[in-house]
Amino acid sequence: MVAKIRFIIVFLLLILLAKVFAVGETNLQCEITTSSCPEATILKLSSSIQSHVALPGSSNYPYNLCCQGSGFTVSNSCSNGFPVFNLGIWPTNAHVYVKQAGPSGNYACLSTEDEVIMECAYTTADCVSAGYDTCLVSLSAEDNSEVSECPTENFPVNVCCKAIDAKSCADDCTFISDNQIHAGCNGTNGCNFYDATAMQVCDLAQPGWVRDYDGTQEVECAEGIPREKGNVKATVTCEKENLIKMTKLVNYQGELVKMVIVTCG
After folding, report:
1. If you ran DSSP here, which 8-state letter would residue 200 be given?
2. Short-list 52, 62, 39, CA closest to 85
3. What is the Cβ-side half-sphere exposure of residue 201, based on CA atoms within 13 angstroms?
4. Over the stretch 44-63, which tens digit does the pLDDT of each residue have?
5. Is residue 127 part of a domain?
6. What is the number of other CB atoms lying within 10 angstroms of the CB of residue 12?
7. Which range marks the domain in which residue 58 is found?
C-alpha cells in the first residue's frame, strides 16, 4: 500500500512539473493555410507558391500566414511588434522587401503582449538549424520578392522567427548579452523606436550608428528621430604645395566609407 501511495505521489508530481515547464515554453509556430487562423494572421497570400501578398485585413486572397505561440499569445500589431515584411507602397497585390530594400510604408508585423519578444532574420540557412523556432515564408530575393511556403526551390531566402524572453532587452534596444540593437525589443524595458521603418533599418546595428531612413533622411539608431542627411565640406588653410593627402577605407558607424586625411606638411 505504501509503495502504491508513493507511486501515485510521484506520478502527480511529474504531471505538475510537466505543466510548469509547458507554461514556460516560448515556441512560435507558423504555417500557410486556407483555413482561418486560430490566433493571428500575419500576411495574406494569393497562393502558397510564388505568391503576391497583402496586409492581414485584406479580403482579396484565400491563403493566410498564421502564427501562434506556445505559452504566449501572438498578434499582428505593429505598435510593439517586429516589422517582418515591408510591402512598400501597396497594401495589397504587393511584393515583399526586407531590411533597407525598397520603399517603406506598409508593414506586416509579428508581436505579443506577453513577456516575450519576437526576433526574426532573413537567411539562406535552415531556420531551425540556425536557432529559430519556425520559417514563415521563403523569398526569391530580399528586394521586390514574391513569397512561397518553406522550403521552395528558387526561393533561397528564409524568413525565420523565434520567441525570446523580454527580460533580454535593455533600455537602449540592445540585448543585455550583446551590443546589437534588436527591433523586437520595441516597447520593452524603455526601448522605443521612432516607427516601423526605424525599427527595420536599425535592427542588428549598434547604438549610435546612422542608417538611411529614406531617400532624403537618416536616423541615429536606435531611438533617434529622422533628420535630413547632412554633408560637411572640409576647408583647407594651408598652401597646396605643403599638403599631405592620404585616402583610406575605414569602418564608420557600421559602414565601410572612404576617409580622406589631409595634413599640412
Report:
1. H
2. 52
3. 28
4. 999 999 999 999 989 889 99
5. yes
6. 10
7. 26-167
